[in-house]
Amino acid sequence: MDFFSNVALGFSVALSPTNLLFCFLGALVGTLVGVLPGLGPVGAVAFLLSLTFKMEPATAVIMLAGIYYGAMYGGSTTSILVNIPGETASVVTCLDGYRMARQGRAGAALGISAFGSFIAGTFGVIGLMFLAPMLGRAALRFGPAEYFTLTLTGLTLVAYLTQGSMTKALIMTTLGLLAGSVGMDPISGEERFTYGNLTLRDGFGLVPVAMGLFGIAEVLENLTTLGSQSIYQTEIKGLLPNLKDWKDSGWPIARGSVIGFFLGILPGPGPVIASFVSYGMEKRMSRYPEKFGTGVIEGVAGPEAANNSATAGSFIPLLSLGIPTSAIMALFMGALMIHGIQPGPLFISKYPQLFWGFIASMYIGNAMLLVLNLPLIGIWVRLLKTPYAILFPLILLFCLIGVYSLNSNVVEIIIMLIFGIAGFFLRRLGFEGAPFILAMVLGPIMETSLRQTLLISRGSFSVFYTRPICATLLVVTAAFLIWPLFRRRRNQIGE
Amino acid sequence: MKQSNVAISLILIGLAGFILLQSRNLAVGSLRAPQTAFFPTTLATLLLIFSVILLAQTLLKGEVRRGPDNVVAEGWIRIGATLATMVGFALALERLGFLLTTFLLMVLLLRAIESQRWHKVVAIALMTTLVSYAIFGWLLGIPLPGGVLGI
């Protein structure tokens, strides 16, 4: 009964005219961000974060979540129609989706991608609804030692999962933690590395840094290869998949939903990994694996379901433990904290309206996207033809005003530009931005919990291996750190 | 890529050294009672270790993964012009005011990224300035600097 009354409460919040409007706006902007190149979902959420300050917390979170899952939907549209993934989680969709479009089956690919996303998104939300409160209750028993090891494991896992060199990912993590330590000491209040600058007293702002690393850096990267994109002209007809399509896609969608959800919970770029794992699995399980990559509907249905389900799963660690597991979740945490709300074990019991309203809005948002995406595909394709030379100045303008509007502070624009330039060069050298931003947000939590643990244990580290949760997490962390060395050795022997 | 990796490793080693030096001005405390500089000092040491590992990996094995595509001169000019325009925006915003600075920013960016026709540039710049002013200034009620125009 309690459960149903909570769901009813959630719908009463989500269906209020304001929240409904912002859910729609979020989904719309998200789809736009997913469709258009030049600004990924992280950059978009960072930019719109500044607009949410004056909103009610529930409205703010509902809109930002809409952008996140909207981008997942939008990204697949461009993957299928023009072979350009709007964001990384849709890279896999290009393989078979684009081939289907070339064979004149763009409609079926788009249709199954939208329906698959909707089904998986709904599954993910149901999972979130059940698992988050359970995990939240379990986390009430966590002490500072558990929090420290949990953040340590999370950061190590993100570094492990980052594409490219793990050393570089660990460097970015350390740099992020250092950036997070600028400003006031969270325990003593003493200033660190501020050099008398008032803006730095509160530390580097999340929005200028995220917008620099993900917005400005991305635009600068695109400026290096500015050119006109050729858009494949295809006639889109029959968006509804036929019976055979449904038969072929049913299990891939079901499997993608489950895998995606659980991979989404783990730290790291959940939706991206989920889509790759789902594609690999469908190929292995298929009776005709050799046909994958030539336009097989299972290759679209599985990954698209997986990345949407992962989106919902990735909210679990944030809402129940207070630990963001990806760059975008770090921004959600920022959005909540700006309103004075601390996500964590007490979040659901303290803010039931916010939690259940958010859950209900995700149901509604997913349904809206289904309605929004299919009939509007023609408009999205036309938008793709917007010349970069007009699109980029607009993105840059919104980044500049977005950052300035935070505190009416020009210094924050300069901080954004510095991080934009650094992000551009670092990315070209194989250093990724995600571990940095995540570490920057987790830094203060990690420092506080480490210092509290040492104070309580009187400087003894034994607490980390005598408490079962800590010990398990440390073993996992060590495994992620050591495994790449073994893998390299094995590869060398193999060669 | 190899040269860039060596360069970035050396920069990072320098940065770690700088943070370690700066942390000496703050209290480190002890393991029993860690103080303000405890966490940054630990992190700077870790940064030093990871940077040395990266340097060693690059020098010993010549980590030559796929390097970034070279940026053509035209690309660097576009990037330079775009960045200079944005820095100019930051410096001029509170002096010239939102409307004038935004209009100039858009004109310069539209010309810098790809030469567009003047009438098109002015039209787009004017439209975006007014629309962004309406959204941020009126709709969201964010105080935007009036500058010389006083609005």
Topology:
The complex is a heterodimer of chains A (495) and B (151).
Chain A: H1 2-14, H2 17-35, H3 41-49, H4 57-82, H5 91-102, H6 106-139, H7 144-161, H8 166-180, E1 183-184, E2 191-192, H9 198-201, H10 206-224, H11 243-265, H12 270-285, H13 298-313, H14 315-321, H15 327-338, H16 347-350, H17 352-384, H18 388-407, H19 410-428, H20 434-456, H21 463-466, H22 468-494
Helix pairs in contact in A: 1-17, 2-4, 2-17, 3-4, 3-10, 3-15, 4-5, 4-6, 4-13, 4-15, 4-17, 5-6, 5-13, 6-11, 6-13, 6-14, 6-17, 7-8, 7-20, 7-22, 8-20, 10-18, 10-19, 11-12, 11-13, 12-13, 15-20, 18-19
Chain B: H1 2-23, H2 38-61, H3 73-96, H4 98-113, H5 118-139
Helix pairs in contact in B: 1-2, 3-4, 4-5
**Could you estimate the helical fraction of the residues of chain A in percent?**
over 70%
Label the structural class of chain B.
mainly alpha
Biggest β-sheet strands, sense, barrel of chain A:
2 strands, antiparallel
Radius of gyration of chain B over all CA atoms, rounded: 24 Å
Order of helices and strands of chain B: HHHHH
The oligomeric state of the chains shown is heterodimer
| Global shape of chain B | flat
Helix content of chain B: over 70%
Spatial strand sequence of the major β-sheet of chain A: 1-2
What count of helical segments of chain B does DSSP give? 5
- Poorly predicted sequence stretches spanning 5 or more consecutive residues of chain B: none
Q: How many individual β-strands of chain B?
A: 0
Helix count from the secondary structure assignment of chain A: 22
Major beta sheet of chain B, specifics? none
Describe the structure.
The complex is a heterodimer of chains A (495) and B (151). With 495 residues, chain A is mainly alpha-helical. Chain A is 75% helix and 1% strand. Chain A is built from 22 helices and two strands. Chain A has a two-stranded antiparallel sheet. In chain A, a hairpin with a 6-residue loop joins β1 and β2. Chain A is globular and about 70 Å long. Helix content of chain B is 72%, strand content 0%. Chain B has five helices and no strands. The longest helix of chain B is centred in the N-terminal third of the chain and has 24 residues, at 38-61. The model of chain B has no long low-confidence stretch (mean pLDDT 88). Chains A and B meet through α8, α10, α18, α19 and α20 of A and α1, α2, α3, α4 and α5 of B.
